[in-house]
Write a structure and sequence with these properties.
This protein is α+β, with helices and mostly antiparallel strands. It is built from 4 helices and 6 strands; from the N terminus they run αββββαββαα. Strand 1 and strand 2 form a beta hairpin. The longest helix has 17 residues.
């Protein structure tokens, strides 16, 4: 996966915005004002994704590319190395999981204003 594929996949989700609140080098994707994915634009060697805590531990045990979230809450975030044996399909599934997790934690009224039902 390259930065363009990552960006396109994140932006294909309903209600997603992109920002650079941590500086010009860090691309952040949000739904309902809440972060679900971020990456360094220049290096693009890894991405940070929100994850269910139980699944996060499972992924870390099964994939060497998955580590506790760098500069994030280690219980809820993973840092995923892009260079490695992970397919685009797996990365997209994990991005989708992160998006859905954040989306479903938004109040129903906010999801409705985004025209995004629970998934």
């Amino acid at each position: 996966m390259n930065i363009e594929d990552f960006r396109d996949h994140c932006l294909s989700k309903p209600g997603v915005t992109e920002e650079t609140p941590f500086g010009d080098n860090t691309l952040v994707f949000k739904v309902g004002g809440k972060i679900f994915a971020l990456a360094d634009i220049i290096e693009f060697s890894s991405i940070n994704l929100k994850c269910d805590p139980v699944k996060a531990l499972e992924l870390r045990e099964n994939f060497e590319e998955v580590q506790p979230g760098y500069h994030m809450n280690k219980k809820h975030w993973n840092t995923v190395a892009i260079k490695g044996n992970l397919s685009n399909t797996i990365l997209q599934e994990w991005i989708d999981h992160s998006y859905t997790l954040v989306l479903n934690n938004l109040p129903r009224s906010q999801r409705l204003t985004l025209n995004v039902p629970s998934q």
